[in-house]
Amino acid sequence: MAPATGKRPTTLTDVARLAGVSIATASKALNGRNQVRASTRERVMVAAEQLSFSPNALARGLLAGRTGTVGLLTSDMEGRFSLPILMGAEDAFGRGSVSVFLCDARGDSFREQYHVKALLGRRVDGLIVVGSRTDARPPLPGRLSVPVVYAYSPSLDDQDTSVISDNVEAGRTAVDHLLALGRSRIVHISGDRTYAAARDRAEGATAALRAARLTPVGKKVHFGSWSESWGRSAIASLLAAHPDIDGVFAGSDQIARGVLEVLREKGRAVPEDVAVVGFDNWAVLATQARPQLTSMDMQLEQLGRRAAELLFSAMEGGTHPGIEKIGCSLVIRESTAG
Amino acid sequence: MAPATGKRPTTLTDVARLAGVSIATASKALNGRNQVRASTRERVMVAAEQLSFSPNALARGLLAGRTGTVGLLTSDMEGRFSLPILMGAEDAFGRGSVSVFLCDARGDSFREQYHVKALLGRRVDGLIVVGSRTDARPPLPGRLSVPVVYAYSPSLDDQDTSVISDNVEAGRTAVDHLLALGRSRIVHISGDRTYAAARDRAEGATAALRAARLTPVGKKVHFGSWSESWGRSAIASLLAAHPDIDGVFAGSDQIARGVLEVLREKGRAVPEDVAVVGFDNWAVLATQARPQLTSMDMQLEQLGRRAAELLFSAMEGGTHPGIEKIGCSLVIRESTAG
DNA sequence: CTGAAAGCGCTTACAG
DNA sequence: CTGAAAGCGCTTACAG
To answer: Which of A80, A292, B36, B181 has its CA 20 to 30 A from that of A249?
Structure first.
């Protein structure tokens, strides 16, 4: 049925008729083929402009076998991870060519299947799959007809192409920063240990301490949950047992916010008495903390850009099996900078 | 060129050949037309299954004149508003039929134009435009060939279809809640007054107070910015001038968090001494506050559902000029519940 | 330089 | 019940 707002979209036939040429010539004129007389091209362009002609990408895609469309499949319901990745991917693909469409599977594998089918049915040229956590995930089932790049959360199949943040190195960087400030009574308070993100960051943090011939205060990493309330209760009991703590590496900015709050209440000055590093560099939390929070940034836009580059290359026939890691950067604010 | 991962997608022709029928019959069998013998249908189904045939939506769309695709154009870079709206829209369109693709214009009208062109070129059946703030926005330029629904942020053209949250009523609801708790020394601390959201909520709040023959403490609404730090400084100076404040309506959960923090520091018990209501019901902030924060919820999923319904109806030829308002709901937590 | 024709993958009257 | 044919809107060899 006809759309409410109007007139059926103009077609190349309309343009050709108005310009008084065949559709073949109109097509060539519009696509910059050079077997067209300048004046003819001009007439066609004017006609197209006048009718605000916009070529039907469906027809084009049908012919070309590629649609200039990429699907980004996410399960990140808050969009905290996937939107920056989407932006990075869009940037990498650039304006002129490829469009990225985002679908949300909400962590439901049935819905994921549905979206994959819908996207493939619409003949996207490739797929970027963004996980909601950094743990490796099963690859999309079935033999897919287009290349796939896994971002943020790698595929379990090491023949697939994956791009992730280097959480181990980030843990090391965070602790090295505290060490460089002269801190030596350092604790690592992190989130749910069932998350690879928690374990990886802890691994890096522990390695950095070990390299400095130190062990974490309390002799272990303190796993819990990704929440402010865990940050509060963890730091409270740690301070009671180890009043000499002088550095905290928190597994997330939420945890760090809880830590900062309790440090304030206990009268510990940050960063003078205790320096604090968070993780995620989530602006809403980090810049509004007292003091403002130093945090590790996963560089998600860059991750998205890289995912797009790898996908583009794969669409051209390239192969990139394995996991590529993107470095995280340290964003220094008041909580470690005085 | 051929995609790296493989074989060109199977076509109806492949299926028909394997089943030993014509493509016309294969098509009818697959689409449940009833002019097909049961055993033939069965053979075709098996063949399609075996080749994991997925019909080319481009070809279908070309024929049908509609693609079963809707574009959701957002400018909300954090996704806090647009992702819930996306989910609501997906739900409303249901599984079987329409897919929603999200594009991010990042508040840049050039990029918005680009995305609109890309979406229309791909022949979406309709467009949902989601703003980043509640202020009315200029309509998409040009005569579009598909219906458009504006969500969250209405179109300035009252002939367009818009769905928004009822911020005025929400302001009233929040204050009525405080009044019902017996509070009478109420302040409203809100965000940037250049935002319609701030002004609308303030209008509702003021009306509710007036209806109770009260004026806000300090005789005015306290506008500032959408941040915790503004919440902190605003409540601090208000408490100094008006120590008898017993209720706070904050224009956002971020502001409310700042308010709660200072109330704690000043030794005011919440909700016993001062009851606090926030706005947005942003789980990360509201559930981790001390005490947990009562907040107004804009029901964005419902807003998305309604936008999808209106768009669907418009695609069928219906018209719905004007602005439809979705009610916000009060989510009661400890900060007003004792 | 220009246009008639074939074809991308599908659906739908229309004959048989 | 089945299939040959036309056609959706476009592009691209191929003749002229």
So the answer is: A80
